Amino acid sequence: MGLFGPGKSEEEKLQERVAKALDEMGVTVESVAEKDGALHVGCFQGASGLTSYKSLSLTMEGVIGFLQANGREIVDVKVGPCGSGDTVMSQLATILYR
Predict the structure, then answer these.
(1) In whole angstroms, what is the distance from residue 95 CA to residue 68 CA?
(2) What band does 50 get if pLDDT is binned at 50, 70 and 90?
(3) pLDDT band at 3 (very low <50, low <70, confident <90, very high)
(4) Which own/partner contact pairs does 78-83 have at CB distance under 8 Å and 24+ positions apart?
(5) Alpha carbon distance 82, 4 (integer Å)
(6) Strand residues in 1-89 grouped as ranges (E)
């Protein structure tokens, strides 16, 4: 928990964020290995609450790295606000890949 022990390292926290983002995108090791030549899109929410751009950048880097390591080509990446009006509290990352 971190109260009485060291808690999770930054690397462990990043790995958890990347795994969660890939899960939100519906990407698994099995599905990413099935190359069909078609374009695919995946979206994930940066965080609930205010998030740092560093955290979002590192998570996106992990997701893109995973896709590329599994032979996928990244076609486009977009980041936009998630929410409406004055309640925008996170970013939505959209990754287009082949």
Answers:
(1) 12
(2) low
(3) low
(4) 79/46, 82/45, 82/46
(5) 35
(6) 40-45, 74-82
Given a contact cutoff of 8 angstroms between Cβ atoms, the answer to whether 32 and 70 are in contact is yes
Token pair, residue 66, equals 């995973």
What are 5's two structure tokens? Answer: 């022990």
Read off the amino acid at residue 34.
Answer: E
Hey, how many other C-beta atoms are within 10 angstroms of the C-beta on 13? 13
Closest by alpha carbon to 97, among 71, 62, 59?
Answer: 71
* Contact between residue 96 and residue 64 where contact means Cβ atoms under 8 Å apart: no
- pLDDT for 91 equals 86
- Return the biggest CA–CA distance within the chain: 50
Strand-pairing partners, residue 11, are none
Burial of 28 (0-12, 13-18, 19+ CB in 10 A): exposed
